[in-house]
Automatic annotation (TrEMBL):
Any single GO CC term annotated in Swiss-Prot or TrEMBL for this entry: cytoplasm
MF GO annotations: metalloendopeptidase activity; RNA endonuclease activity; zinc ion binding
Species per Swiss-Prot/TrEMBL record: Candidatus Bodocaedibacter vickermanii
Residues bound to Zn(2+): 130, 134, 140
Keywords: Cytoplasm, Endonuclease, Hydrolase, Metal-binding, Nuclease, Ribosome biogenesis, rRNA processing, Zinc
Similarity annotation: Belongs to the endoribonuclease YbeY family.
Role played: Single strand-specific metallo-endoribonuclease involved in late-stage 70S ribosome quality control and in maturation of the 3' terminus of the 16S rRNA.
Protein name: Endoribonuclease YbeY
GO biological process, one term: rRNA processing
Localization in the cell: Cytoplasm
EC numbers: 3.1.-.-
Length: 174
């Protein structure tokens, strides 16, 4: 999948996102979206020209989306909205294919890293990988699906020197 071309469209809805990681947020997002899409165990035939939309927002905005699309009237850390297209039929297209949208809330994520004593870089990378896998059809509705998805996440993060987020490992913690 080295020929993957990814266009990440970012909508910055909350200025606090500008200083979340020690590199431009665009580069950070691109790194972990590509890592998820190019993992060798991803068996889907993915088109070579892809677009992912990322909305960087806050609890007020994500709460509305969570309520309207999931029936849960509360904020959450991340939401994924896949495009619901058959990617295998588009694998030979040269045109750019929109995978879907990822929406991240700065408020909930900052609360989680403080409460769980995690590093922002690690936690955000995990959420990006997790939500990208949702965009290509992975879910955690059953135990076996959850195990598969978590295994992929852990392996992808490991290749970027980020420890297993599902374990209480001091190297993932602050």
């Amino acid at each position: 999948m080295s020929s993957l071309s990814l266009d990440v469209q970012i909508s910055l809805e909350d200025a606090r996102w500008k200083k979340v990681v020690n590199e431009p947020i665009e580069s950070f997002l691109q790194t972990y979206i590509v890592a998820a899409l190019s993992h060798p165990d991803i068996v889907l035939q993915i088109p070579k020209n892809l677009e992912v939309s990322v909305v960087l927002t806050n609890d007020d905005d994500i709460r509305e989306l969570n309520r309207d699309y999931r029936g849960k009237d509360k904020p959450t850390n991340v939401l994924s909205f896949p495009q619901e297209v058959d990617l295998s039929t588009m694998k030979h297209l040269d045109a750019c294919v929109l995978l879907g949208d990822i929406v991240l809330s700065i408020d909930t994520i900052q609360h989680e890293i403080m409460q769980q004593q995690k590093l922002m870089h690690h936690h955000l990378a995990h959420l990006i990988v997790h939500s990208t896998l949702h965009l290509i059809g992975y879910d955690h509705e059953t135990d076996s699906d959850a195990e598969l998805m978590e295994s992929l996440e852990v392996d992808i993060l490991h290749h970027h020197n980020i420890p297993n987020p599902y374990e209480s490992d001091s190297s993932y913690m602050v």
